[in-house]
């Protein structure tokens, strides 16, 4: 408050000097106050006080408006920053989730691939075992066929030689 009174008093003194110079014709930039016909310094001082009060009110109004605009800009900037931070955090979270999902899918794919490899190896082993059994069965069948041929040959030679009519019948049946 003391500062305001000092500034006000200084402003009054300055304006009074300018008005007095203007009335003498010395300063063209002085406040455009009509020079009083009667040298009533009290009325002039009161008029200057009113003008100074108007100037201060205008300055205060302008300062309040400027401060309000600055606060609005700051609030808007803070809100924009907050929203940007939220979007950045959401993007980071989505990226982390995507990475986790991709890793999980890759792990499942690796497990499925390993299971497929195991199944393929097991099927190869089974196929090899079946092929070996087939070869053994073919060999057994050949041996059985050869044994049957030997038995048949022996039957023909031994039985048919003794009875020639039976050999003709066995040949016809075979």
Task: Provide tags for this entry.
174 residues; mainly alpha; 89% helix; rod-shaped; disordered N terminus
Describe what this molecule looks like in 3D:
This protein is mainly alpha-helical and 174 residues long. It contains three helices and no strands. It starts with a helix and ends with a helix.
The count of helical stretches stands at 3
Number of strands: 0
Q: What's the main sheet like?
A: none
Q: Roughly what fraction of the amino acids lie in strands?
A: under 5%
Oligomer status: single chain
pLDDT averaged residue by residue: 81
Elements, N to C (H/E): HHH
- Please give the alpha-carbon distance between the first and last residues: 140 Å
The structural class is mainly alpha
- Radius of gyration over alpha carbons? 60 Å
How much helix, percentage-wise, in residues?
A: over 70%
Q: Please mark out the parts with pLDDT under 50 across 5 or more consecutive residues, or reply none.
A: 1-6, 22-31
């Amino acid at each position: 408050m003391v500062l305001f009174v000092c500034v006000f008093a200084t402003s009054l003194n300055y304006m009074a000097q300018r008005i007095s110079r203007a009335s003498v014709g010395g300063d063209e930039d002085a406040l455009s106050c009509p020079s009083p016909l009667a040298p009533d310094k009290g009325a002039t001082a009161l008029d200057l006080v009113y003008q100074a009060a108007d100037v201060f009110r205008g300055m205060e109004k302008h300062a309040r408006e400027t401060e309000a605009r600055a606060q609005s800009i700051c609030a808007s900037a803070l809100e924009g920053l907050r929203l940007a931070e939220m979007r950045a955090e959401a993007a980071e979270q989505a990226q982390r989730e995507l990475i986790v999902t991709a890793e999980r899918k890759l792990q499942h794919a690796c497990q499925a691939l390993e299971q497929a490899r195991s199944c393929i190896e097991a099927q190869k082993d089974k196929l090899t075992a079946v092929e070996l059994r087939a070869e053994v069965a073919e060999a057994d069948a050949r041996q059985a066929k050869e044994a049957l041929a030997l038995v048949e040959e022996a039957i023909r030679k031994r039985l048919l030689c003794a009875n020639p009519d039976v050999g003709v019948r066995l040949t016809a049946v075979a």
